[in-house]
Design a protein that fits this description.
With about 150 residues, the protein is an alpha+beta fold. The protein has seven helices and three strands.
Length: about 150
């Protein structure tokens, strides 16, 4: 009888493959964020490593000001040292500098949806003949007329 593997062991086995490397990095970033205090965790939008630079993106400029002082950067460097002792051979081993940015724009989807809601005006007054003899089409046409009248 075969022993069933736990989820953790299956995920660790899968992460060893090359095409799952981004997943492994995301899991490592999440683990690193858990080391930070809760106040700083709430300020951070994204975290990633590129060209041996730890990039931290904050939700707001207030988070940028809070994280971009020398004491906080030194604490983050200490956390990196602790993290690299626990997890060997990670991208955090090669981190030289820390850069902090603030997120400038919200998602574009919300902006587009708000624009559509405010810019649409129905010009029809729903005074037209219903030419359909098919009952199904006739009912659908009348439902459309009712929606136009509700606007």
């Amino acid at each position: 009888m075969k022993k069933i593997k736990s989820v953790d062991t299956v995920i660790n086995d899968m992460i060893s493959f090359h095409h799952y490397k981004p997943l492994k990095n995301f899991i490592l970033y999440k683990e690193f964020l858990k080391l930070m205090n809760l106040k700083h965790q709430r300020l951070i939008s994204k975290i990633f490593i590129h060209n041996n630079i730890l990039n931290i993106v904050t939700f707001h400029s207030v988070g940028y000001q809070d994280l971009n002082n020398d004491d906080t950067k030194n604490n983050i460097k200490i956390l990196i040292k602790i993290f690299t002792k626990k997890f060997l051979n990670t991208p955090f081993d090669k981190v030289d500098t820390i850069k902090i940015f603030s997120q400038r724009y919200k998602e574009k989807k919300n902006f587009i949806q708000e624009e559509r809601k405010t810019s649409y005006i129905e010009l029809s007054k729903a005074r037209f003949k219903n030419p359909f003899k098919n009952k199904k089409l006739y009912v659908q046409f009348e439902e459309l007329r009712a929606k136009i009248n509700d606007l």
